[in-house]
Each structure stands twice: as structure tokens, then as C-alpha cells.
Amino acid sequence: MSRALLLAGLMLTVSSSVFANSLDLSLNDNTVRVGGAFAPAENLQIHASWLHNQDRGDVAAVGLFQVGLASSGNQPVEAGLGAKAVFTDGVRNLGGGKGSSVALGGFGRWVIPGADRFAVGGELYLAPGVLSFSGQDGYREAAVYVSYDVLKTTYVYLGYRYLKANYDDRPNLVFDDQFHIGFRMNF
Q1: What letters, b where the CB count within 10 A reaches 16 and e where it falls short, cover 99-137?
Q2: Domains of the chain
Q3: CB neighbours (10 Å) of residue 63?
Q4: What is the maximum alpha-carbon separation in the chain?
């Protein structure tokens, strides 16, 4: 069942990327994450992502976010708030944790004044036990990054990501806790 959910998440990631408003790819020695977002209506985005850690397992997610400018001025903060359904499938020799959660949170990106090609951004998602199902007892995800706009619609970034799932009767599992490099293309 869990593998089917991960496969569905991956298919949503690929299908949303085909019609995407943005495509994001990040990686390090052990982890790759691919994601896409598209906007079916103004100020609304649907995100899909898949993270694979070769030593720890897979995490697939699909989310719905209200997006817009969180500040005014020449360098406004772009932000989004919403929720995402998260499906995890941990490696067997680490306890084999599987489960799902509805994680609440958001993301933001701010272009640094006077350095209009540089920006900082991040995201934070949390799911307590009451929003976790199928053997999962909580979920946490946080990321921060510094980016450089190569083109108006494409930036490269260096970031740090922490992603952990708690389970009812299996060991908790950190799927990612490392620095990564990546790029994002906006269409």
C-alpha cells in the first residue's frame, strides 16, 4: 500500500512538472529531490515532490498553497501558506517506517535589497500526531537556502534541509539532514 502511495506521489510530481509553473531539483551525495508547482488559479498553487535518500528511503508529497506577496516595497517577500499530504517509506534495515501525515506550513523567498540577484528563502512544515496516519506519529520538515538568479526565471541555490518522520511502533527516521545544491526554473 505504501509503495503504491509513493508511486502515486512520484507520478503526480512528474505530471505536475509537465504542466508546471516551476520545476525544482536539488541533491547531495545521498539525496535527490524533484518537485514541481503549477497554478490552477491566481494566488493558488499545487505542489508535488519526491525525495529519495539512497540510505534511508523515500518521501512523496502533494500540497495546496495560497501564495502571494507578504510585504510591499521594491523587494517584497514572496510567500505561501497551506498544507501538504506526505507519504513516507523508510528503508527496512532502519526499521522500515511507513506512514502518512498532513503537514501544515509554508515557504518564503526574499530578494536582498541592493543585491537583486541574491535571495534567501526557506520552508517549514509540521504535522503533530493528530494529523498523522498509517503508523506515523508526526512529521517535521525545514529548509533554508541562499540563491543566485542566473536568469530572471531561473536560480541556483545552496541550502540545508532537515526532514524527519516519527512512527508509532518503529524507530523515528531522519530522511535528510544535510546541505544540498539545486536549481529552480519558473515558467
Answers
A1: bbbbbbbbbbbbbeeeeeeebbbbbbbebeeebbeebbb
A2: 2-186 (2.40.128.90)
A3: 24
A4: 52
β-bridge partners, 118: 148
Virtual torsion, Cα 62, 86, 108, 15, nearest 10 deg: -20
Q: Which residues of 11-45 are buried (b: 16+ CB within 10 A; e: fewer)?
A: ebbeebbeebebbbbbebeebebbbbbbeeeeeeb
Supply the pLDDT for residue 17. 42
Quote the pLDDT of residue 24.
98
pLDDT at 99: 94
Q: Which residues lie closer than 8 Å to 174 by C-beta, 6 or more apart?
A: 56, 162, 163, 164
Residue 3 has a pLDDT of: 52
How is residue 145 written as a grid cell? 537556502
Q: What is the mean pLDDT of each run of 10 residues along the chain (187 residues)?
A: 49 48 96 96 96 95 96 85 96 77 97 90 98 95 98 96 93 94 96
